[in-house]
Structure formats: C-alpha cells, structure tokens
Amino acid sequence: MNEFEFTPTYDTVCQAADRIRDVVVRTPLLESPALNKKIGARLLVKCETLQVTGSFKFRGAYNAISSLPDEVRARGVFAYSSGNHAQGIAHAAEMMNIPATILMPEDSPAIKISNTRGYGATVVTYDRYTESREEIGARIAEKDGLTLIKPYDNPAIVSGQGTIGLEIAQQLKEKGLTADYLSAPCGGGGLISGITLAMAKESPTTRLIAAEPENFDDTTRSLALGERVSNEPGHRSICDAIVTPMPGEITFPILQGNGVTGVFLTEREVTNAVRTAFTDLKIVVEPGGAVALAAYLSGKVDIAGKTVVAVCSGGNVDAPLFADILLEKL
Amino acid sequence: MNEFEFTPTYDTVCQAADRIRDVVVRTPLLESPALNKKIGARLLVKCETLQVTGSFKFRGAYNAISSLPDEVRARGVFAYSSGNHAQGIAHAAEMMNIPATILMPEDSPAIKISNTRGYGATVVTYDRYTESREEIGARIAEKDGLTLIKPYDNPAIVSGQGTIGLEIAQQLKEKGLTADYLSAPCGGGGLISGITLAMAKESPTTRLIAAEPENFDDTTRSLALGERVSNEPGHRSICDAIVTPMPGEITFPILQGNGVTGVFLTEREVTNAVRTAFTDLKIVVEPGGAVALAAYLSGKVDIAGKTVVAVCSGGNVDAPLFADILLEKL
C-alpha cells in the first residue's frame, strides 16, 4: 500500500472511463498503408494529439478533479506542469466552474502557457533548472486552500490515462488485431502505467514499452535495475513534456510488476518521427509526444512483421519549432 | 438525364457507403473548445486529412473502381489529377491488384507524385498551363484499354464522396447537434455535391457552402448566375488540389438544385486557416483542404452563435511549404 487514497487497478481505470466518457474524444487509431509498407510492420497510432486540449492529459485531469468531494473541489485546484497537464487541469476546472492555478516552467512552449491562460487558469512561472516546483507549489496550494493535482503520482490521474488502453484494446478488437507491442511516451509514467493496467487485463500477450528521451531515461534504467533511479541533473531536451527527474512512486511498481521495458531515443530519432507523423499520418505531434513512434522507426525495437501500437500523446508544439523540424534544422 | 450511366442520388450515396465501409476511415468530427471560444461559434471539423491516402478522394476512387464490371476493372484504370484523386485511385487499384496510370501536372506537390508512385501506379506528367489533360488522357486510356475515372464528373465518384455527408449527419446526431452551415472545399464539385445529396435528406435545414480559392471561384459565380461559367485562364493558386476550370457537368445541377452558395477565399485567408488547424486542432491540412475552414475564420460567413461544420479535405502538403506557412512567410 502507498500513501495515496487508493491503488489504481483495472477496475479504477474502468470507473474512470465511465466518468469521463461524455467529455473526452475517443481518439482514432490511425494507420498508413504507405508507412506500413516502408517499415515492414503493421503500425497503429493512437492519436491523443486530437484529444481535448491537444494531449491525453485531459483524461486524467478531468477524472481527478471530478473525483474530489464537492466542497474540496469548489475551493479550486493547483497543478505544476510543463504544459499538457496544465492545459488538461485548466480546461477541466473551467468546465466545472472552479478556480485553477498552474505553476509552469518559464521556458515552457509559448503555446502551452497561452492555452492554459486561455482556459481561464492563473499561471505562475518558475525556473525549472534552479527552483523546486514541489516547494513553490506547496506554498501556493496551502495559501489558497487549493487541492494539488500531481501530474502522475495520483491514482485518479493514472486511472484516467489508463482509459486510453481500454480504447486501444477495443479498437484493436474491432479490427480483429492483437498487438505484439504497445509503446507510449514516458515522463513520470502516468500514461504508460495507466495503459499497462488496462492492457494487462485486455491483452496480456502485448508487450509494453516506455519510450523516453536521451538523458531522461530514468524509467528505462530503473526497470533494468529493479529500483527507482534519477536522471543526472542539468540536461535539456526537445521533449519538454516528459523531462521528469525519476519514475513516479505510484507508477513505477505498476510497470515493474507487469514486465514493462524501456527504450530511449535521441533528439534526431525524435524529430525524424515528428516528420514521419506529418508526412504519413498528417498529424501534428510535439517532440515529447513522438518518442513512442520514434521507438519503432529508429530500429531500436524489432518490429519486422509485427503489429505494433504507438501512442502519440500530444500536439502542443510552437509553430517555429515545428517549422524547424520540418526543414530538418533539428 | 446526362451522358453518364446513372444520376447520383441519396440512394447511390448510401450504396457507396455499404461498398466502402470496411476500407475507409470513419474520420473524426473534431472541435476545439479554445477555438470555439475565439470565434464565438461551435465549429466542428470533419477531418478527411486522416482518410486513407491523406484525403477524401480515396472514398470516391474505391467506390468507382469497385463498381466497374470485373473484366473492365481487370484491364486497369487511368486518371488525371493534381494528386489527391491520383493517390486515391492508385491505392484503390493497388488494393484490387489492377494496373493504374495517372497523369499529373509536373508542378504537383512532390509528396503527391511520390506517394502516387509509392502506391504502385505509373505516373505520367504534363504542363497544366499549356497542355490539355483530357486530350493526353484520352490517348493513354485508349492505347492500353484502361478505364478513365474522372475526378468529379463520374456518378460513382460523387456517390463515394457523399459518404462523408452521411457520416457528418450521423456524428452530429450522436452529439445532439444540427448544423446551421456545412462548408466544403470545391474544385470540380465532387465533394460538395456528394455531401449535398446526403445532407439534403439527412439535415434539410443545413445550408451548404462551396468554398473556393480566389481566381478559381467558378462555382461561386456559376451558382450566382444560374449557369456554368469558367475561370479566367492563367491564374495560379496555392490551393493546387482545387484549381479546376469550371463546375462539373454532373455536380453543378446538384448544387444548383439544392440552394448551395459559394464563397471565395484569398491566399492569406487560406494560410491563416492552415495555421489555425495546426495550432488549435493539431491537424495537417493542405491549402486546398483548408478553404472551408477559412470561409468561417475569414468572417465571410456570419457564424456568430451558430453550429457550423467545415470539411478539411486533405493533408498532402510538402514540408517546406507547410514550414513557410507556419513561419507566416505565406
């Protein structure tokens, strides 16, 4: 047992699915016959870029806030986030007519900060390389009586993200397919752990892969070592959405208990995946959202002849950066 | 009656839907709460950029080829197209294991030519400003015994494109909505006429709008005048997918008979819509595919407080051009 109010399970994922059904997009599971031919595999892409607020984070955010007791929720919520959890929380709070304050790194993509403000949240910025978001966050939350909704170490968040796994399992069944691999981007692990809970029950033969950026491969190394280890501080990454310091307290045991493995991708592999998503799938994927696709395209996972699923988790990327990636400047 | 083998109707659209159901993507009807707030309307985007081959054209192409008698189909098909019909025909032919030859303008987007070749078709290029595709096409088709599949003046093509209208009507019903306006890009009119057949029956109060690029507003002017008129030759447009000379022989009477009106958009209005689709919807839309969205964003249609649908019809755009649009160089 952990310090949290409950342990996320397959059942709590199903409960989350019921709770959020009417407000989330059942995102498509796309594929490109041309791309399949090129890579010699059947690749299906779960397109969470098309989720409300442009990333999967809205699922967990809505589930977590709507699970709060009425009088607690009414005081408002607080979150720290590089931007996708921020937008998810801000929009969910807006829908429920409660105040939201979000602490964001000052170097977050402009689109993420402006969208979060657009959803009516109060945005406070900090320096992610010198300040602790946990400390600043605790002070703000206490002062205004806000409830902190952590980005991944929260069972309602993990359960909400797991609804993606339920949808993937159902969409694969509709196509008469079973996936050999399912890969999802991994920062703190909220997404991949939730999906793992769903897939372990729905499709136990599917092997799950946590995809991470180079220098932020804490989950890959932790899973190999059998214990949670941190990233070396001081690195930067184009994958702003998933540059967390170490695996989550709730999320890591789920991955470890279900044989999930990790893989890390270089910046070049990630930008190549962003371009492929543009050219072959016609979707806008931010770098951090493209690492799972990159895992397959890079050759680091042996997918020849297999059926594989990649979650493209978000599309909140600034236009100038996306243009640079398209022009192969990155 | 016309020279064609049948007149497309609501019923032929429904038959097309049955014929193509297992091979097409039921594309999502997306919306962005943030964008809705900005424009003061409820905007739903039918996202045919996510269709097989990256545009709606695959629907009509598959329907038309699969409707041919077996022995005719076996000899192969021929098409002329700036690229989206080309890819639709090429991929449908590939799926049915028959040869396809496609005549394309030599200045078609590189992505469209290479994708068409990737689907196994033989591509022949011509100069769209000095040569007649109809004449070259007739020669090629006759020589090899191929069946010409015209891009819009073909009742099976119109019926196939109309399946988009059936899906939109069903998706709106699922959301409990009725659209005040539905706009779709218009070149020869295959898409908007097919959709009109579906919507006239499914949602008769919805007003239909054909969206065209500046200098290629032949349908807009023809509808206003009550007869088919041509564009002045010699103009060029960023909207390569929809720069046809005049409304189709089959398509125009459908538009005229159902009170469809037209609107034309400047290049600036179109590129603005491409950027909005990127930023707010996370989808890759080619310029010609974005004119219907541009119709609403431009202010040329009074959408205040209304529920409006835009078809984003294709996403086959070269990366350097898309980058220039994102960087506001266009």
Cα distance, first to last residue of chain A?
A: 44 Å
Count of spatially separate domains of chain A: 2
CATH architecture of the largest domain in chain A: 3-Layer(aba) Sandwich
Oligomer: homodimer
* Low-pLDDT windows of residues of chain A: none
Count of DSSP helices of chain A?
14
Which two chains have the most extensive interface, and how many residues on each?
A: A-B, 34 and 34 residues
Notes on the protein architecture:
The structure is a homodimer of 330-residue chains. Chain A has 330 residues and is an alpha/beta fold. The first copy, chain A, has 14 helices and 10 strands. In chain A, strands 1-2-10-7-8-9 form a 6-stranded mixed beta sheet, with helices on both faces. Chain A has a 4-stranded parallel beta sheet with strand order 5-4-3-6, sandwiched between helices. In chain A, helix 9 links the parallel strand 7 and strand 8 (207-213). In chain A, helix 5 runs parallel beside helix 6. The termini of chain A are far apart. The A-B interface holds A 25, 27-28, 30, 33-34, 37, 47, 49-50, 52-54, 91, 111, 115, 118-119, 275, 278-279, 281-284, 315-316, 319-320, 322-324, 326-327 and B 25, 27-28, 30, 33-34, 37, 47, 49-50, 52-54, 91, 111, 115, 118-119, 275, 278-279, 281-284, 315-316, 319-320, 322-324, 326-327.
Key features of this structure:
homodimer, 330 residues, alpha/beta, Rossmann fold, 2 domains, six-stranded mixed β-sheet, four-stranded parallel β-sheet, 14 helices, 10 strands, 44% helix, globular
